[in-house]
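Async update (no meeting this week)

Hi team, since we skipped the sync, here's where things stand on the single-chain job. The sequence we agreed to prioritize is pasted below, unchanged from the tracker. I ran it this morning and attached the output directly underneath so nobody has to dig for it. Comments welcome in thread, and please keep replies under the output.
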Amino acid sequence: CSQVQVKKRSSHVIYEISWPIKAFPWSFSRPTLVTLAQTQVYIYRNRNEGVMAKIVKSRDLPRAESLRDGRQRIDLVTEDIFGTSDVKADWVTYQAGRDAPAHYHTGSRHYFFIINGSGTFHGGGNTFQLEPGDVVMSEEEEMHSFTSDPNEKLEFIELWVPAPTQTIWEDAEDTCRWSPVAKVAAEG
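Output:
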């Protein structure tokens, strides 16, 4: 059994765990279900009743669609879901041949992990072709945008560290607004 160090850090970051873990030295009891901003979060506790993990089922994650270009977004990590602004993450899907308006974010670096499809990243005065497995970083206040290839959708996970304080659009007449989409129905 490997050693595991568990340290309480703050009221927002509950535990810091040193990896790798080959065996878990604690036992899980039944999860506690709570609702945060209409999102169900399962909180697992150890035998000492300390919070160990929060699980949000995929079907319960908030979803939105861009009113400008039909992009789809699934919120993965937000302050509403997990109670932290240390990081923010979304899963974004561009349909084939779509683009987003150029913009930048204040207060954070922005990372993109390309999952499926191909497209183009425009940022820092450069243009880069993207394919699955590529990782892109955009600095704070660096203007950037994406275009998906004409015959293929583009999917990526975007991560902000920390969560951005504001989004600034290059053209105030060409911005993105998101509309909530109904959550996925539970299979049953």
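Quick observations from my side:
Residues 1-38 have pLDDT under 50 and may be disordered.
Residues 37 and 80 are 6 Å apart (CA to CA).
Reply here if anything looks off.
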